């Protein structure tokens, strides 16, 4: 397994308690939009067995041509051991990248794509949006729906100015408004749905979409194949 020891080159506060870390991009580290990787704190692999408490699975919120690797995460107490140590890191400190994967890349099937996320789950969606804006071939429309009860919408100031006739954002602060919006857009579009959020959120959305007669194959979640039966039930 390849491991990459990289420096933190920048940080950005996206919302209260939410921070983006930008890392060096190794020359041979390649990924697709919607990919994820594992972030390990220095020392996680120095014992007889790796310290899994010092490792976290993160969505990559940048594209390869950005020439940097970015991930966005909540840093609010109570902290996990990983996030407590992560919150203390500064520009110039190092982390370890390993085990990249991709389950959420854009499907180009002449359909609309509807991105459904909760809170910081939009980190998975951001590179999908930017890839679509660079190349919308075989995608009729892209709709981004994010629900966040705190109203601290991550990336909103960046993404709203990019809207056009084929791309629209919905920022929702209540679950009832969220389902009203999802009902409205699903009635209008023959679509593929990408869903990211808590386990409960993902299961609720899948149930709602299945009730709307959306086929399982048109609902994408960022889970291993063997775990999907826990959500599509």
Write up what this structure looks like.
This protein has 233 residues and is of the alpha/beta class. The protein has two domains: 3-102, Elongation Factor Tu (Ef-tu), domain 3, CATH 2.40.30.10; 111-230, 3-Layer(aba) Sandwich (Rossmann fold). The protein has helices at 81-88, 122-134, 156-159, 175-188, 199-211, and strands spanning 3-15, 18-23, 35-41, 55-59, 69-74, 94-102, 111-118, 139-147, 167-172, 191-196, 219-221. The strands form two sheets. Strands 4-3-6-1-2-5 form a six-stranded antiparallel sheet. Strands 9-8-7-10-11 form a five-stranded parallel sheet, with helices on both faces. Strand 8 (139-147), helix 3 (156-159) and strand 9 form a beta-alpha-beta unit. The radius of gyration is 18 Å and the shape is globular. The model has no long low-confidence stretch (mean pLDDT 95).
């Amino acid at each position: 397994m390849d491991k990459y020891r990289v420096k933190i080159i920048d940080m950005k506060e996206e919302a209260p308690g939410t921070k983006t870390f930008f890392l060096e991009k190794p020359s041979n580290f390649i990924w697709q939009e919607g990919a994820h990787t594992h972030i390990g704190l220095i020392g996680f692999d120095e014992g007889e067995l790796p310290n899994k408490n010092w490792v976290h699975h993160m969505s990559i919120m940048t594209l390869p041509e950005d020439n940097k690797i970015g991930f966005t995460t909540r840093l609010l107490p109570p902290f996990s051991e990983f996030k407590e140590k992560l919150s203390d890191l500064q520009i110039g400190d190092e982390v370890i990248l390993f085990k990249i994967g991709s389950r959420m890349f854009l499907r180009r099937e002449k359909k609309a794509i509807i991105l459904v996320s909760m809170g910081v789950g939009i980190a998975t969606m951001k590179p999908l949006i930017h890839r679509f804006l660079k190349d919308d071939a075989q995608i009729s429309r892209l709709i981004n729906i994010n629900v966040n009860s705190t109203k601290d919408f991550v990336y909103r100031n960046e993404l709203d100015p990019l809207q056009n006739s084929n791309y629209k954002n919905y920022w929702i602060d209540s679950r009832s408004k969220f389902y009203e919006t999802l009902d409205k857009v699903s009635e209008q579009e023959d679509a593929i749905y990408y869903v990211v959020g808590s386990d409960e959120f993902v299961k609720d959305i899948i149930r709602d979409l299945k009730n709307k007669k959306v086929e399982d194959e048109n609902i994408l979640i960022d889970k291993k194949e063997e775990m999907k039966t826990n959500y599509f039930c």
